[in-house]
Amino acid sequence: MLPVRCHRRLRGGLCGCSCGWAPWPACWWSGPPLAAVGVAALWPLTPTVAGAEGRIQQRLSAHSAADLYSLPTPDRTGRAVIATEDARFFSHHGLDSVGLLRAAFGVASQRKGDPGGATLDQQLAKNLYTGRSWVGQLAQVELSFKLENAYSKDQILEMYLSTVYFGHGFYGLSAASSGYFGVPPSQLSWAQASLLAGLVQAPSAYDPYSHRALARSRQRHVLDRLVAVGTLSAAQADRSYASPLGFR
Questions:
Q1: At a CB cut-off of 8 Å and minimum separation 6, what does 46 contact?
Q2: What's the pTM value of the predicted model, to 2 decimals?
């Protein structure tokens, strides 16, 4: 659930507490006050996320890809993605302070492309709803909060892993795991999972077939991040990096 600071929400999206009858969800916003106005104003203008799973099915069907259905056990790729892309995933509520500052700068300067620092929630919102425009970046903030309010962290991670592109026509973790290594996600080694997690940022640049050295460098970075967050020891990371990848 969202970190609602005010529980006195009234009809019309207003709260009757000492926060000054602020539009919900602005009353629980912890960022800059001006940004809170934008959050509240855009909230009713963005789509509902109740149909997110249906959008995922349409996306996968369009690419003849298989649904992940549930997080694999063990979920090595998910943990590697979180460590690398969004280390505060389980503690934030859709947006972290670093991502907010980068997105605000990107909007203010009307820079093209992704300003970086996006949480997994924002990346999922982009994949399913918005795109890369600066207007879309604002909508991603709203939609990330809505995703957090409607789904559990595990569900958001599962949806993200089901929609992200891993290169070579592989949409979603199931397709990537099978396509690159010929095994289901639950059977991926740390070596394989870290390589896949490294593809998320730029699947063409880190293509393990065409750019093996860059892919391996990125894999090393992912393993280092897993050490930094305490998932692996340095020795485990070194052994994983030295392990064969076993491409098909």
A1: 129, 139, 142, 143, 146
A2: 0.77
